[in-house]
């Protein structure tokens, strides 16, 4: 009897130890505290609430977005692998994001609609679809909840009303409802360095009627003659729309509660968007902190410059595919850098990543199809790989471990076992081509190749076959 009880005790103790070790290992850099911290979940059941600032859907998803959301995907997958139950919420900004951080200027969505000569609703729908198509190509998981700002207008109005009742707001005639940042003693704590600039209005400019340069719009009124397509009535005006920041507070509270574990975004969101999310959320709920871990991604440059349409270095996933690259080779390229470092994208760097991706695929083909249990050496590789990821997402080190493992004298079956585990995070897409619907570009290449064959242009047909092979599609001709 005592033996059985002791056995049960040992079993539970062992399980508890494993859980503890698993959940003790994750570390993340926190912008709020400016240091790498040990990660703790929401509760003892390992639940983790995660909110990622989503895309403003007024134009095409580009390389910079692809990198940010791919490395968010690595974060979510790493947390889940470590045993956390992640609830992943990501918004779609389809209203209220103005071209300037200064609460003035045109709404990006209305601007996009004019540019493409379509309705603002069509623009939003089209670029949202393009965003998810791009995410799928990169192997990124869909969020558990994807929420559009335009479908949460009531929640945003309710939050502004709550702030009004608590005395944090004021009205600027013919402009909107503003948040009074002087009512908070710790406004700007996410980034105290930039607060001086903000206060002087250098970075964001000053709207007439603002009590403090750092005050920001919660609800905007339509300007005379503006004729917006997206418009709502509110307690403050007949025709208006939400400010950009309020959507993230309202929707994260609705789906994840008043305090959340992790919030991600680009570093450009630190001084204004995220600073204001903190201010309005903590003012409304009185609960501090709104977010425990702020995770920020650094920028992607292209050929050493900021991406922009005017410089001609604005590229999408279709540009990548059209130039004969596999999106998962791009994923590998992103994994070779750290999310907190700036990355400089060049087509040469993608070319090198594509070669590495193909080399790894060839190695994988030599490992057979039978997975076997891990030896002590295999377990060491496993630990090195996941420890790197759990140490503030050191993806480059994790990728390096894949190569050391692949070139080691570990038995093939063990290499296969390890690679399958690693690929749960890496998502390099080897051997997945048969399951994937060919993209528009691939379909077009196949058609072009058929036409070339019909004209007996074998040189062109072969070149197109190679292009398709680089995209992971093997062409087999039949009679
Ligand atoms: Zn946001």
Write a brief caption for the model.
By secondary structure, the protein is of the alpha/beta class.
What would you note in describing this structure?
The protein is of the alpha/beta class. It is built from 16 helices and 14 strands. It has a 5-stranded parallel β-sheet with strand order 5-4-3-10-11, with helices on both faces. Strands 6-7-8-9 form a 4-stranded antiparallel β-sheet. The model has no long low-confidence stretch (mean pLDDT 91). Bound molecules: zinc ion (ZN). Zinc ion (ZN) is lined by residues 53, 248, 273.
What's the total number of strands?
14
Strand content: 5-15%
Spatial extent as radius of gyration: 25 Å
- CATH domain fold name of the largest domain: Rossmann fold
Following the backbone from N to C, one meets helices and strands in this order, namely HEEEHEHHEHEEHEEHEHEEEHHEHHHHHH
Read across the widest sheet, the strand sequence of neighbours is 5-4-3-10-11
CATH architecture of the largest domain: 3-Layer(aba) Sandwich
User: At the first level of CATH, what is the class of the largest domain?
Assistant: Alpha Beta
> How is the main sheet built?
5 strands, parallel
Supply the number of helical segments.
Answer: 16
Distance between the termini: 74 Å
CATH superfamily of the largest domain: HUPs
Oligomer description: single chain
Number of domains: 3
Q: Would you tell me the overall average pLDDT? A: 91
Shape: globular
Helix-strand category: alpha/beta
């Amino acid at each position: 009897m005592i033996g059985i009880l002791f056995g049960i005790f040992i079993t539970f103790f062992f399980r508890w130890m494993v859980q503890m070790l698993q959940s003790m290992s994750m570390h993340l850099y926190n912008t709020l505290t400016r240091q790498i911290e040990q990660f703790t979940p929401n509760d003892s059941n390992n639940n983790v609430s995660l909110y990622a600032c989503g895309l403003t859907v007024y134009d095409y998803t580009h390389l910079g977005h692809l990198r940010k959301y791919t490395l968010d995907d690595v974060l979510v997958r790493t947390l889940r692998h470590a045993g956390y139950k992640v609830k992943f919420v990501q918004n779609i900004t389809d209203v209220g994001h103005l071209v300037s951080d200064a609460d003035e200027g045109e709404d990006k969505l209305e601007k996009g609609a004019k540019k493409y000569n379509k309705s603002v609703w069509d623009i939003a729908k089209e670029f949202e679809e393009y965003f998810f198509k791009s995410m799928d190509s990169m192997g990124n998981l869909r969020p558990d909840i994807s929420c559009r700002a335009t479908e949460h207008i009531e929640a945003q109005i309710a939050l502004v009303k709550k702030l009004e009742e608590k005395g944090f707001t004021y009205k600027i005639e013919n402009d909107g409802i503003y948040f009074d940042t002087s009512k908070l003693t710790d406004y700007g704590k996410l980034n105290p360095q930039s607060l001086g600039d903000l206060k002087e209005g250098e970075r964001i400019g000053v709207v007439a009627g603002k009590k403090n340069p750092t005050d920001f719009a919660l609800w905007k009124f339509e300007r005379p003659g503006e004729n917006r397509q997206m418009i709502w009535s509110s307690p403050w005006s007949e025709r208006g729309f939400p400010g950009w920041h309020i959507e993230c507070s309202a929707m994260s509270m609705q789906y994840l509660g008043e305090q959340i574990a992790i919030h991600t975004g680009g570093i450009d969101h630190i001084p204004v968007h995220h600073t204001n999310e903190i201010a309005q959320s903590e003012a409304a709920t009185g609960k501090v902190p709104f977010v425990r871990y702020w995770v920020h991604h650094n920028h992607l440059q292209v050929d050493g410059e900021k991406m922009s349409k005017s410089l001609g270095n604005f590229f999408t996933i279709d540009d990548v595919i059209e130039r004969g690259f596999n999106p998962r080779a791009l994923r590998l390229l992103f994994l070779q850098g750290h999310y907190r470092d700036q990355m400089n994208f060049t087509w040469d760097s993608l070319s090198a990543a594509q070669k590495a991706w193909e080399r790894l695929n060839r190695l994988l083909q030599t490992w057979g199809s039978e997975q076997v249990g891990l030896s002590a050496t295999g377990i060491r590789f496993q630990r090195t790989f996941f420890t790197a990821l759990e140490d503030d997402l050191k993806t480059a080190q994790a990728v390096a471990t894949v190569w050391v493992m692949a070139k080691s004298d570990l038995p093939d079956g063990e290499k296969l076992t390890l690679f399958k585990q690693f690929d749960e995070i890496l998502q390099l897409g080897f051997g997945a081509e048969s399951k994937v619907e060919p993209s528009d570009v691939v379909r077009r290449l196949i058609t072009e190749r058929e036409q070339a064959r019909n004209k007996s242009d074998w040189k062109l047909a072969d070149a197109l076959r190679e292009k398709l092979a680089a995209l992971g599609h093997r062409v087999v001709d039949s009679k």
